[in-house]
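Please decode residue identities from the backbone states below.
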């Protein structure tokens, strides 16, 4: 667990963890907690990312989404480069305090994904297909709202 996890009390156990009123997030072995961002107005799932204790604390304190980039190994504020910010209007934590859902209002063009789309979940997986046949993904019709190369440069990654 990362050293900054000490920003929060240690996780409780049993009923204390599941029914208590103290935020005691359970970070994984890499010091991260999973976060799902959804549109505050529509409930549409926009993205999945991870937070370390510092990102979680900053998100709570500033009401602006902060995440931890696993590929770059660094803290990042959503929209810092792109302008596609996420104002957090509500945060929920699950029963065993190892995942959060944030309801957000998107800034900029309203695109949460680094590909320029509204949602990172813009492809569908065919159900009932044989996985060994490498089923073809479908598209939801969520077209890019901006040119990622113009915003991030040619070497943009998946960390939004």
């Amino acid at each position: 667990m990362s050293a900054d996890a000490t920003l929060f009390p240690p996780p409780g156990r049993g009923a204390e963890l599941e029914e208590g009123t103290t935020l005691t997030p359970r970070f994984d072995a890499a010091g991260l907690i999973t976060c799902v961002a959804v549109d505050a107005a529509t409930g549409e799932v926009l993205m999945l990312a991870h937070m370390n204790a510092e990102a979680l604390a900053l998100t709570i304190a500033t009401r602006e989404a902060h995440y931890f980039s696993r590929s770059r190994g660094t803290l990042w504020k959503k929209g810092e480069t792109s302008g596609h910010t996420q104002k957090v209007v509500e945060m929920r934590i699950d029963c065993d305090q190892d995942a959060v859902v944030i309801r957000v209002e998107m800034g900029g063009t309203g695109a949460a994904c680094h590909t320029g789309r509204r949602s990172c979940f813009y492809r569908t997986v065919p159900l009932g297909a044989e996985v060994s046949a490498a089923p073809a993904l479908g598209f939801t019709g969520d077209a890019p709202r901006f040119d990622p190369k113009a915003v991030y440069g040619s070497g943009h990654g998946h960390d939004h």
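Observation: The radius of gyration is 17 Å.
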